[in-house]
Design a protein that fits this description.
The protein is an all-beta fold. It has a single domain (2-123), classed as Jelly Rolls (Sandwich). It is 0% helix and 55% strand. It is built from no helices and 9 strands. The chain has strands at 2-6, 14-20, 31-39, 44-54, 59-62, 67-69, 74-79, 96-108, 114-123. Strands 2, 4, 5, 6 and 8 form a 5-stranded antiparallel sheet that branches. β4 and β5 form a beta hairpin. The protein is elongated, with a radius of gyration of 15 Å.
């Protein structure tokens, strides 16, 4: 099952999004997130990093991969780290899944906007 959430925020440094895992999800299933994003201009080098909240440990776990942002929309899939139990990332009782997105700036001007077009939670 796939859940699609539109994004209204155009400026991002730390941004949290949530989804609800479908009933019966878990076991051998997996969670991944597709992010469509870009940066406003070429005045800075920006990367996007995603983390999912682990309800068993109480901390965010960084998802493998960094998404380089360009001025053209791009899509990248972020999946759980190998060996992770998807059930740990689903809040008991509410089935909530929490995603934290962070923009990382490595060079350039300090004020360059990141535009998120779509965040797609995949529960498969």
């Amino acid at each position: 099952m796939v859940r699609c959430l539109p994004i209204n925020s155009r400026i991002l440094s730390f941004n949290s999004k949530t989804a609800t895992a479908p009933v019966g999800f878990g076991g051998d299933d997996t969670i991944s997130v597709d992010i469509e994003a870009s940066r406003q201009n070429d005045n800075a080098t920006l990367n996007l990093r995603g983390s999912l909240f682990n309800f068993s440990t109480g901390v965010y776990v960084t998802l493998p991969g960094i998404m380089p942002l360009s001025t053209v929309d791009a899509v990248q899939n972020f999946a759980l780290p190998s060996g992770s139990d998807p059930d740990d990332f689903i809040q008991p009782g509410t089935s909530e899944v929490r995603l934290l997105l962070q923009t990382l700036q490595t060079t350039g001007l300090p004020i360059v906007r990141t535009q998120l077009d779509e965040v797609l939670f995949n529960f498969e």
